[in-house]
């Protein structure tokens, strides 16, 4: 049975309304991203922390641990892990930033404006993603100084950093979830770190998982951080040293696909969770 002209017009109108609402959300998110970036620029310590932290890890792992783990070969292996870890740790800034807005009542001002709740969170996660991209650039420059090189093609390099940015964006929504549940900056600062260290370190980002206890080895093999690091190594042409064998699992045999799927799953789970909690908070 064909649709009547009235039903057709109603469907077209509903679709147009949905598209208009989506476009408005993106515009509001863009405005709030600019607001957050200006706020970051006024706090030099925020930028310094975000940029110095990965440099510290590069120097620490490359020269303190690198000598016993493979020297120059390990430094080339290391950089993909540093990139992946940087994207994970960037989520802590989302946690603290969102908790700070909630604690200071800034979100209450946003609530009085005709904007989608999604725009508020999107503005926060997008601005932190921009900072994350700057972190990747600085980390890459530091890596070049310690002997790391890109051996893959330009297209592979673009894909590698695309995987990292998508993963970082997904992690920022995890950070946002912690932020809306923590609410206060003090709780957010501690809660935001509780999951970061085990999540990034129980992986193959820096070491082989072969000598880990079986539960940890399985976790490391299927940890998205491991897949992201392995994907970046493969795409950039950075070989894995013979003394650091990787688990023979589907996740690490198809690391790019698994990394992208993991990021999309994280977004599908945590975006609704953040919005649900945010709406509950702003309703009082």
From TrEMBL:
<keyword id="KW-1003">Cell membrane</keyword>
<keyword id="KW-0472">Membrane</keyword>
<feature type="transmembrane region" description="Helical">
    <location>
        <begin position="47"/>
        <end position="65"/>
    </location>
</feature>
<keyword id="KW-1133">Transmembrane helix</keyword>
<feature type="transmembrane region" description="Helical">
    <location>
        <begin position="121"/>
        <end position="146"/>
    </location>
</feature>
<dbReference type="InterPro" id="IPR051784">
    <property type="entry name" value="Nod_factor_ABC_transporter"/>
</dbReference>
<keyword id="KW-0813">Transport</keyword>
<feature type="transmembrane region" description="Helical">
    <location>
        <begin position="158"/>
        <end position="181"/>
    </location>
</feature>
<keyword id="KW-0046">Antibiotic resistance</keyword>
<dbReference type="Pfam" id="PF01061">
    <property type="entry name" value="ABC2_membrane"/>
</dbReference>
<protein>
    <recommendedName>
        <fullName>Transport permease protein</fullName>
    </recommendedName>
</protein>
<feature type="domain" description="ABC transmembrane type-2">
    <location>
        <begin position="45"/>
        <end position="281"/>
    </location>
</feature>
<feature type="transmembrane region" description="Helical">
    <location>
        <begin position="257"/>
        <end position="276"/>
    </location>
</feature>
<comment type="similarity">
    <text>Belongs to the ABC-2 integral membrane protein family.</text>
</comment>
<dbReference type="InterPro" id="IPR047817">
    <property type="entry name" value="ABC2_TM_bact-type"/>
</dbReference>
<dbReference type="InterPro" id="IPR000412">
    <property type="entry name" value="ABC_2_transport"/>
</dbReference>
<dbReference type="InterPro" id="IPR013525">
    <property type="entry name" value="ABC2_TM"/>
</dbReference>
<keyword id="KW-0812">Transmembrane</keyword>
<feature type="transmembrane region" description="Helical">
    <location>
        <begin position="77"/>
        <end position="100"/>
    </location>
</feature>
<feature type="transmembrane region" description="Helical">
    <location>
        <begin position="193"/>
        <end position="209"/>
    </location>
</feature>
